[in-house]
Amino acid sequence: MNVPVSLSLKIELVDLADAKSRLLVDDFVKEMGASLFHRTPWLLAVERATGQRASGFVAQQLGVVRGWLPLTEVRSFLFGKALVSSGFGVGGGICAESPEAANALARAAQDYATQHGFGSVELRGGDVPEGWQAVTDKHCEFERALAADDDAELLAIPRKSRAEVRKGLNNGLTLAIGSTDNDLAMHYAAYSESVRNLGTPVFPKALFREMLSAFPRESDILTILRDGKPLASVLSFYHNGAVLPFWGGGSFAARGARANELMYYELMLHARKCGMERFDFGRSKVGSGPAKYKKNWGFEPQPLTYATWTPEGVEARDVDPTSEAYARKIELWKKLPLPIANTLGPFISRGLA
To answer: Among 182, 184, 197, 216, which is least packed, fewest CB within 10 Å?
Structure first.
């Protein structure tokens, strides 16, 4: 699909099955210093794990890439159809060198959504295109520099949270870091219990497996254990000098053992040894418990801007777990036995990209 924009700028729908096209896009993403979620391995890992098609539009000028819009084509019987930039990510909006390229990419996404029956287009980050609805008050991101050494890292944590980390250090817990099948099994055991306790359907285990495969040198799993049993575990990525603890959680027993606190502290130490300079604590809902937890660790919230476009007369899909529409469902989900939640969850969560 070619969408002529001017004599020199054109927009193309990228074929991500083509290695040359992927290379062009990923070289541009690297040059621009764009997010992990702009990279084609991320999109393709989502597609392989969930069946949600990876696509995107590229803006080219005289054969040179000037802009990129990654897209996951989400199709869900529960949540409808949407183009999401980028699926299962917290970033991935339009990445462009000029307003002309950015606007052309936005128009291409609108046209594609209209032609193929997608109810909305969602951009997670980047500039807000003209005529789109900006969302600025729902999410914040948290990031700070890593300290120079282990002792300084501990002292950089505010007093109350530092005391919790010290308790974890004194509880005789052990640490495992890797990306083997056993690491993945331990991670899923801790993570799935954590999200069930929050009332959220767990993502497919295949999503985590595919991400580890897609980023073999830029991802791993860190797990905190007691007597060989996983208490808390986090799957992290390493990108542009920052560690991103992306999917993490702990069992109910992790609380008393301070395993979550120890997990993040140990990840900070591990990330610095891997050459990282920053700790990207990810996004959280404004005013939520996780947001307060991150502030207590000394991270200052920075507002995130998302954007949504819908055809005239169509309402954007609602996948906000804090929405009143989901309050009762969340409370019911918390009560499900873990095996049932882990069986049903992946079928539902595929549509939450």
So the answer is: 216
**Through-space distance between the first and last CA atoms of the chain, rounded to whole angstroms:** 24
DSSP-derived pairing of the beta strands 278-285 and 242-250 = parallel
Enumerate the β-bridge partners of residue 84: 72, 122
In the 8-state DSSP scheme, what is residue 128? P
| Residue listed under structure tokens 């418990």 | 289
Tens place of pLDDT per residue across the chain (353 aa):
555 555 588 999 999 999 999 999 999 999 999 999 999 999 999 999 999 999 999 999 988 999 999 999 999 877 789 999 999 999 999 999 999 999 999 999 999 999 999 999 999 998 899 999 998 888 899 999 999 999 999 999 999 999 999 999 999 999 999 999 999 999 999 999 999 988 888 999 999 999 999 999 999 999 999 999 999 999 999 999 999 999 999 999 999 999 999 999 999 999 999 999 999 999 998 888 899 999 999 999 999 999 999 987 677 666 665 666 666 777 887 888 888 988 888 878 877 77
* CATH placement of domain 141-300: 3.40.630.30
Do 2-136+305-317 and 141-300 fold alike per CATH?
Answer: yes
Listed by start position, the domains of the chain span 2-136+305-317, 141-300
d(CA 260, CA 137): 28
In the chain, the amino acid numbered 232 is A
